[in-house]
Design brief:
mainly alpha; 3-stranded mixed β-sheet; 14 helices
Length: 356
Amino acid sequence: MVNDIQECCRLTGLDELTSTGFYYTWSNHTMWSKLDRAMVNPTWLQTYGGSSATFLLFGKHSDHSPILVKMGVDGEPVSRLFRFFNMWTMHGEFKTIVQDVWTADRLGSRKWAMIKNLKALKSPLKSLNRKEFGHISERAKRASLDLEETQQQMHDDQHNAALQQKVLNRSEKAKFLTKAERSFYYQKAKLHYLKNSDRPTKFFLGMVKRNTQRNHVASIRRADGTMTTSREEVHAEFLMFYMEFLGTRQPCLAIDLEVLHSRPRTYEDDSATLMGPILNSEIKDALFDISDDKAQGPDGFTAHFFKHSWDTVGPFLTETVKEFFRSGSLLKQWVTHCLSSFRRKYKLKKWGIFDQ
């Protein structure tokens, strides 16, 4: 029975709405169980992306929890963090943009120059996205319609050389945009089980919305024990927790060398290997072992960016990593660079120990 229900939900695109409140939704005062769910389809998620369900107390009329569904919209727009999309690497101008930024003279250490290069790269990449990839689904659909229109014209005038060339050009453009659209939604949805030949269907786009909705925190318990469903207050509670957690200095106990010496040690050969210099090939192998569809780093760049731009970025990145191992520390500016986007998004003036 459970398998049948799961298969039905999969075929119809039904998914459980984010819920808060009481976990057990049914009771006969002896047994407790979670029997009730708030299920919605992709159309609902696309229309009411900020919806949530709250399970209330049973009350006197039923042994099931009443479900209060908040039919909210996505809410006020918030500033978006930079996110690198792998489809950008498909464009002919991409490598030129990276090279132009990377050949600029940067004063300071390699780590500092890496920060400045990545930061300087964001603006031209955003411009490339707006110019060539904005509203990618509409672009891909329009390119396909233009191709079909030109193919019909050539069918009626088969010996027209200009139309033949036009069909070839529009065919390449349609293929390019379709591939870019697929890459975009794969990265957004992280649906690894879909085949590369699948195009973004309505159900597929619903899965993107579902993933976003699942990550939505509908409510949170404040430090004083009260609950809040306000988006601004939920954000504030998360920030306050981590600001206190990251911004609190605690004294550390000194390492007891006698304890270390009394424990088993590595052999000299193993120690020499562990303490040996980091090789360029090891850095490259470690990076290339990261899958292209893994989440981006805190600066918004994915492993695919570094792999695709390795000829330009690789030597610089290798020296940056080796510099880190030689110094044994990260620049304060590197940490604040990774957190600066969160500062701007939530209008923070201070961020604990990183401002000291």
